[in-house]
Amino acid sequence: MGDNRGRIKVGIIGPGNIGSDLMYKVRRSKYLEMGIMAGIVESEGIRRAASLGVPVSTEGVKAVAAADGVRIAFDATSAAAHVKFNGPALKEAGIVSIDLTPAALGPYCVPSVNLGSLRAEQDINMVTCGGQATIPIIYAISRVAGAEYAEIVACISSKSAGPGTRANMDEFTETTSKAIETVGGADRGKAIIVLNPAEPPLMMTNTIMVRVKDRSAGFDRIQASIDDIVRELREYVPGYHMRVPPILEGDRVTTIVQVEGQGDFLPPYSGNLDIINSAAVAAAERLAEAMLAEGGD
C-alpha cells in the first residue's frame, strides 16, 4: 500500500461481508490504515484479510484493544456483542468505536447531518442502512419546514441481508425510528424494513414520507434543502440518487431514493451494506483528520 505515514490505524471486528467491504474501503483511504481484522473463529474473511497483508486475529475485540497503534475500531458484529463485549472493551482501551450494529450505546451519527458535533465522543453509532439513506432527507425537510411525523420503508435485496442483518431486524426498526426523531428532527418517526426476494436482485430503495409543520415554507425551499444534502451525501455515497423526486401534496412530502453500491467487495445491489460502510468510513476519516491535526499519527 505504499507509505502509510500520516494515516490513523483502524481495526475491524467482524470479518464477514460488512467487515470485508469495510477493509477494502479503508485500504483506499488517504487517512486510514488497516491495523487489524479480528473475528472469533477462523473464517474466509480472516483468510482474505491475511492474504492482503492485514494483521489478523481470532481473539475478537481483545486483539483489537491490544493492537499496536489502533486508534479507531469498526464493530461489524451484532448489537448484543457490542453491548456486552466490544463497546466496553474499546472504551477501556481508549479506542474510538464506530458501531455499525443497532446497539446505540453512543449517539447516532449520520455524517452529512451531525458528525461535527460528535468528534469528542468515544462511541458513535451508525444507526442502520435505512437510517443512513433516509435521515438526511428527513433532516433536510425538517430544517426548513419542520416535521411532525416521518415514516420510511427500506426495501433491500434478500441476497444482501446476511446473518447479522437478519439477527438485528427488531433493533433495525427501533433504532431507525429513534434516529429519525433525534437526528432527523421529526417529532415522531416510524421505520419498516422489507426483504425483497426478487431475482435478479434489485437495488436498495427507500420510500420517505414526511408530514411537515409549516406548509408556508413552500416546495422550492424544501427542494433546495434536499438538493443540498444529496450533494453532500454523494461525496461519500456516489451511488445515491433520487429515484422519485420529492412531491408535496398538502402537508406531506414523499420521495424515493435508491442506493447503488460501489462494488468494492459486495455486488452493486447491496447498497444497504455499502451506504452504512461508506458512512462509517467517512466518519472515521474525519475523526482521523482531527487526530492527525493534533499530532496523533
What does this structure look like?
The longest helix is centred in the C-terminal third of the chain and has 23 residues, at 271-293. This protein has 10 helices and 11 strands. It has 297 residues and is an alpha/beta fold. Strands 3-2-1-4-5-6 form a 6-stranded parallel sheet, sandwiched between helices. A 5-stranded mixed sheet has the order 8-7-9-11-10. It has helices at residues 17-27, 44-51, 60-66, 79-92, 111-114, 129-145, 163-167, 169-182, 219-233, 271-293; strands at residues 8-13, 32-38, 56-57, 70-75, 96-99, 123-125, 149-157, 188-196, 204-211, 240-249, 252-259. Helices cover 40% and strands 24% of the residues. It has 2 domains: 8-126 and 275-293, Rossmann fold; 129-268, Dihydrodipicolinate Reductase, domain 2. Helix 1 crosses helix 10, helix 3 (60-66) runs parallel beside helix 4 (79-92) and helix 6 (129-145) packs antiparallel against helix 9 (219-233). The two termini are 17 Å apart. The chain is globular, with a radius of gyration of 19 Å.
Record keyword descriptors for this entry.
alpha/beta; 11 strands; Rossmann fold; 10 helices; 2 domains; six-stranded parallel beta sheet; five-stranded mixed beta sheet; Dihydrodipicolinate Reductase, domain 2; globular; 297 residues
Strand and helix layout:
Elements: E1 8-13, H1 17-27, E2 32-38, H2 44-51, E3 56-57, H3 60-66, E4 70-75, H4 79-92, E5 96-99, H5 111-114, E6 123-125, H6 129-145, E7 149-157, H7 163-167, H8 169-182, E8 188-196, E9 204-211, H9 219-233, E10 240-249, E11 252-259, H10 271-293
Parallel strand pairs: 1-2, 1-4, 2-3, 4-5, 5-6, 7-8
Antiparallel strand pairs: 7-9, 9-11, 10-11
